[in-house]
Design brief:
The protein is mainly alpha-helical. Helix 1 runs antiparallel to helix 10. The longest helix has about 40 residues. It is globular, with a radius of gyration of 21 Å.
């Protein structure tokens, strides 16, 4: 019986990894096409200017989405595993309401201190509305992704992601064809907004089905649940933002201390390097909700077996990739 459950789990992980891999392939394709087309159509100066605006926006969203989204992903999965209805609903509400409140504060802050941010981060003054739009759309794009992983709707996420990315790529091509550089950033905003609408529709459609197995909490107390949620969110925010955020900061620093053109060149190179993060992103996106669900169900043996089954394949694949890069570094460069 245990081996049968483990086989079902491994098959589900394999299926989710496949869907996630396809979705991440499209995610990676967007900045790759964007950097090439914008650089060739408008030049490195314009590419740098747009990427500075995007990096500034991403630096803000990485804090919000990791505080609310990553933590929400974990606890939605965990309370599904432990079948706690009220706890699940509380986290679901917080993962949506929390970012709205923070975004309102950030929008007001940017509005009143926009001139200061423009001078410090080498931003274009006229990009205020596009940047605000991008920050809001990007935040709920990530939140929508995290919720869908938290409630095991990965196949629906993959579909929504692919549709949104195809729309973004199509809009980038159109903007470049008509040479409307000032509208390029709206390609992302529109694509993310469509993803949000599709994801909202998916969640409304499936809401009752993922609530059905859950039961009323025996000892429900909202305060300890929220403390755990925010504590985990704070830790993950600091950890992930300090690593991911450094990449966005490096682009902003390049523009500030060197030039916008250098920032454009730097972002183009960073896009190629980011392809190397495909495997770690795939594994973390698939494993976090699944392990959290098993943790909530107190199924420690399945957690250990799952980690064992993932470790060696990942180790050998990583070893082959890293050795190949080391041996052929000069040819790659």
């Amino acid at each position: 019986h245990l081996s049968e459950n483990q086989t079902i789990l491994e098959n589900r992980l394999l299926k989710n990894s496949l869907y996630t891999g396809i979705a991440l392939g499209f995610v990676g394709l967007v900045p790759f096409i964007f950097n090439i087309l914008v650089a060739r159509t408008f030049g490195q100066e314009i590419l740098g200017s747009i990427n500075i605006a995007i990096s500034f926006s991403l630096l803000i969203t990485v804090f919000i989405t990791n505080f609310f989204g990553t933590s929400g992903n974990k606890f939605l999965s965990e309370y599904r595993g432990s079948k706690k209805l009220q706890s699940f609903k509380l986290i679901f509400l917080n993962i949506i309401i929390g970012p709205i409140i923070v975004l309102l504060f950030i929008c007001l802050l940017l509005k009143y201190y926009w001139t200061y941010f423009v001078s410090i981060f080498s931003l274009e003054f006229d990009l205020f509305i596009p940047i605000i739009s991008y920050i809001c759309a990007r935040t709920f794009y990530i939140i929508g992704r995290q919720i869908q992983y938290g409630v095991d709707l990965i196949i629906f996420y993959a579909r929504n992601e692919i549709i949104a990315d195809i729309i973004i790529i199509t809009l980038i091509i159109i903007m470049c064809f008509y040479k409307t550089a000032h509208l390029v950033i709206y390609s992302f905003v529109i694509g993310y907004s469509i993803f949000i609408l599709f994801s909202a529709f998916t969640l409304l459609l499936k809401y009752k089905s993922f609530l059905q197995p859950l039961k009323l909490d025996v000892d429900y107390k909202f305060k300890p649940i929220l403390i755990k949620y925010y504590k985990y969110g704070l830790i993950t925010m600091i950890g992930i933002a300090s690593s991911t955020g450094s990449g966005y900061l490096s682009i902003l620093f390049t523009a500030h201390f060197l030039s916008i053109k250098d920032a454009g060149l730097y972002t183009a190179v960073m896009t190629i390097i980011s392809i190397m993060m495909f495997l770690p992103r795939l594994v973390t996106q698939v494993l976090l909700p699944e392990l959290s669900k098993l943790f909530g169900a107190e199924d420690k043996s399945s957690i250990i077996n799952t980690l064992k089954s993932f470790f060696w394949p990942l180790f050998f694949i990583s070893l082959i990739i890293n050795l190949s890069i080391y041996l052929f570094a000069e040819d790659i460069l």
